[in-house]
Amino acid sequence: PRPLAGQGLILLSVLAVAANLRGVIASVPPLTKEIASGLGLGSGWIGALTALPVLCMGAFAPLAHRAAIRSGAATPIAAGIAAISLGAALRGLGGHTSVYAGTFLAGVGIAIVGTLLPGLVKHLFPPERAGLVTGAYMLAMMGGAGVASAVSVPLAVALGSWSHSLALWALPAVAAFLLWLPLSRRIHHDAPSLEADDTPAAVRLPWRHPTAIIVTAFLALQSWQFYSSLAWLAPTYVDHGWSGERSGYLLSVFTATQMVAGFAGPALADRVRDRRLLLLPAAAAIVAGDLGVLAAPDSAPWLWATLLGVGQGASFAVGLVLLVSYAASTSASARLSAMGLGVSYVLAGFGPTVMGLVRDASGGFGSVWGGLALLVIVQIAAVARLRPDLEPVGHG
């Protein structure tokens, strides 16, 4: 197919959209104390503000895929980014219903865009640029999360309200929508619907395949770790007397190191056949960070955040490589991805809420980080079974 004209503008639009996929989630943790006080919420309900978008990412991903089969990906992505902007704006009203309804609506938008945008990148850009664009997409996504976690508290102070700080993230979503909308018709023309592939074999998920089960288990454990850490790292240090602004900077370090590890992980995975050689050190970094926050939170907090970020970023990025390397074909990779990411996001969506309930029951955050450290042991057991000679999904 001929390359699209104006690829620079399309790349800018893709990156603008990607930058909005984590900001709605990452803007909440530095403000948990203010939100809890303003709405009279316990840790479980606060955790749900982080959990809701993640649950939506798992629950609505299959619907997004079906929509793309019928109408192409460009139009649903436009609807998704519109939902993110409306959801963020709705949270600005500050009431219980508006905050949770806005978070849910934004989560649906994130699910649609996050499911369809990576695949569309492969249609829009030539193969020799797909890796570079995908790396830029990941950097934009995590960069948006880092900015959101760093400036949420200063914005709340400047605007005089935590709800206004949350609502402000509607503006970059609107900007992305305005960039994307004029291009969506052209993109739709050059990357049409997937209706020709809408066959039972193309959509059936490998629920009983042993390799798919192991990969899905690993992704679920890793996602539970990541979203629980994202939700509770900043509140842990606020509980230790840190200001919300400083704890937001700590969360930005956690996010920034994920960006570096997430960019480096796939490059190293191309050179290492046995991906356990990458995943086991990543798990060791995570457990070291968990135990550091548990046992000596104030001795080296920036180091603990760095270890958590490096471990989580590498684990997630290499996990995405597994979705390709353990598939026998492109369609098998799509089915493995739908199963692995869908299940992992649904399960991980309960992570922040469950760990918040653990915190309330125990009276402190030590139980949260101790529980996450124990969970890494289960994750290591899953990694140990990821042998390079496992039967690929879709083989034969």
Question: SSE layout and pairings?
Answer:
Elements: H1 7-18, H2 23-26, H3 32-39, H4 43-59, H5 61-71, H6 74-91, H7 96-124, H8 127-159, H9 162-167, H10 170-190, H11 200-203, H12 210-239, H13 244-269, H14 276-295, H15 301-325, H16 330-348, H17 351-362, H18 366-384
Description of the molecule:
The structure is a single chain. This protein is an all-alpha fold and 396 residues long. Helix content is 79%, strand content 0%. The chain is built from 18 helices and no strands. It has helices spanning 7-18, 23-26, 32-39, 43-59, 61-71, 74-91, 96-124, 127-159, 162-167, 170-190, 200-203, 210-239, 244-269, 276-295, 301-325, 330-348, 351-362, 366-384. Helix 4 (43-59) packs antiparallel against helix 16 and helix 15 (301-325) packs antiparallel against helix 16 (330-348). The protein is globular, with a radius of gyration of 20 Å. The model is unreliable at 1-5 and 192-198 (pLDDT under 50).
